[in-house]
Amino acid sequence: MKRIVCTSISKHRQFATSSINAANKNYKLVIVGSGTGGTATANKFARKLGRGAVAVIEPTDVHYYQPMFTLVGGGIKRFDQTSLNRSELLPNKVDWIKERVSKFDPDNNQVTTESGDTITYEYLITATGLQLNFNQIKGLEEALAEDPAVCSNYSPKTVTKTFPALQAFQEGNVIFTLPATPIKCAGAPQKIMYLADEYLRNAGKRDKANVVFNSSLGGIFGVKKYAEALLPIVKRKNLTCNFRTNLTEVNHKKREATFVNLDTGEESVYEYSFLHAVPPMSAVDAVKNSPLVDETGYVTVDKTTLQHTKYSNVFGIGDNCNLPSSKTAAAAAAQAGILSSNLSSVMNGSKPTAIYDGYTSCPLVTAHNKCVLAEFDFDGEPLETFPFNQAKERYSMFVMKAYMMPTMYWRMLLKGIWNGPKPVRKLLHMGMSR
């Protein structure tokens, strides 16, 4: 009979290990992954279901507030401000199983961990996020390891390289990329470009820099209102944008980056003096190889209820889902409230009725004191919280992004008591907004 070692969290937030008979333990709810969505739902359902009913399967100790990585790369925040131990975030009523899931078996209501242990459930939430596939760009892993001019804000292992690389820049091409896959926060690759441009201007080096944004997308941003606001900023800053252009190889010994035009197949080789590379991303391997996904490799959920389209006792949240919305913490916040309501209904024998409208937000930092706060729905229609034009660069929105949102994230969102700004939006618009 197999047994697992489970890490539980005491009420004093000290680590304690206990042996749990996984073969005979049937959790009411298993949550796989403890990022934004997983942690928020763990806190919600620990309160609903009580001690020992919920298990969180998560192998890592540290939770990162990834939206702050842009500000770390831009020299505005410190890296040590981006993380907390999961023991401070997960509720003491859950069993924290510190392993990685290797197999999903939804037909038998089971998951298997990498150590070979089997855990059964009545209900399952997939919240595994995305994995970073640096290895899919030839030479990129070696370049990140060996070239101080190559960096990426997308990993805690590489984000601390970005600002030193900017400081060391003397002259040449300053290149930023965006890959041809869904990614976390599709606005982040251009945010660091704006901050880099500002830093180089303040350092007296901007006239020696050719700042280039090579993006696989067809435009600067996917929502028309904000794209129209960003293009004049790009022009004002004298930034070169090449769209439908995808990074395929980095040769750090020659300091060359190879790109392919996604429409024509034509290759272009750029010399670089600074390269911020965003890796291709996907659902984690265990999810991609499971019966839970569609042909895209993402968990197949109803986009409005977040319930799996085949397995009614399975729900998904966040980046691992095939939702046609941007993959951001703001989206996960809105989804957490919908998921909680709908899963509770299903547990009570009712149908899910709460509707997710695709709300997400992307605070587009354009300088160390300015931000365009993009908020929109599934259809790319603006869904703004404040009763003013959020497409305009504002200091107030930067303050909210840099100083207010981190506190809300740690103390409210992850604790399961913040489901996005919808109530605030309706109040500020006197009930006239969705």
TrEMBL record:
Gene3D superfamilies linked to this entry: FAD/NAD(P)-binding domain (3.50.50.60)
The FAD/NAD(P)-binding domain, residue ranges: 27-142
One record GO biological process: sulfide oxidation, using sulfide:quinone oxidoreductase
UniProt-annotated location(s): Mitochondrion
Record keywords: FAD, Flavoprotein, Mitochondrion, Oxidoreductase, Quinone, Transit peptide
Its EC number(s): 1.8.5.8
Cofactor needs: FAD
Keyword Flavoprotein belongs to the record: yes
GO molecular function terms noted in the UniProt entry: FAD binding; glutathione-dependent sulfide quinone oxidoreductase activity; quinone binding; sulfide:quinone oxidoreductase activity
GO annotations of cellular component type: mitochondrion
First-tier enzyme category under EC: oxidoreductase
Top-level taxon in the UniProt lineage: Eukaryota
Catalysis performed (reactions): ubiquinone-10 + hydrogen sulfide + glutathione + H(+) = S-sulfanylglutathione + ubiquinol-10; a quinone + hydrogen sulfide + glutathione + H(+) = S-sulfanylglutathione + a quinol; ubiquinone-10 + hydrogen sulfide + sulfite + 2 H(+) = ubiquinol-10 + thiosulfate
Family per similarity comment: Belongs to the SQRD family.
Described purpose of this protein according to its UniProt entry: Catalyzes the oxidation of hydrogen sulfide with the help of a quinone, such as ubiquinone-10, giving rise to thiosulfate and ultimately to sulfane (molecular sulfur) atoms. Requires an additional electron acceptor; can use sulfite, sulfide or cyanide (in vitro). It is believed the in vivo electron acceptor is glutathione.
Designated name of the protein: Sulfide:quinone oxidoreductase, mitochondrial
